[in-house]
Amino acid sequence: MLQIDGGLSVLHLWLTWLNRIWLNDDKYVMIVLKGSVPMSFGGTEQPTAYGELVSIGGLNPDTNKKLSAAIASILETKLSVPKSRFFLKFYDTKASHLMSLSHL
């Protein structure tokens, strides 16, 4: 697991910000963080990041903007990925389009 200052993980920081900005319960939140994945963005291989956020409702332009800003700050301060070098894709979906194996 990638660790940052004070022993807190980047994943923990993301969950903290998700709960502050958007969620009341992270029961159905999954975050995957992969390092050392070869990526090119804007024609260069400088540090970059890509993410996807899937939600059953609750996403809107204002929330997306706040989440993007929080994630950009964490990426820049903790992983040295400039704010201009990440892409975050938002999906607002219906519950019928997703399935958890715990419901089988």
From TrEMBL:
Q: Which domain of life is it from?
A: Eukaryota
> Which family, according to UniProt?
Belongs to the MIF family.
Its protein name is: Macrophage migration inhibitory factor-like protein
- Protein source organism: Ilex paraguariensis
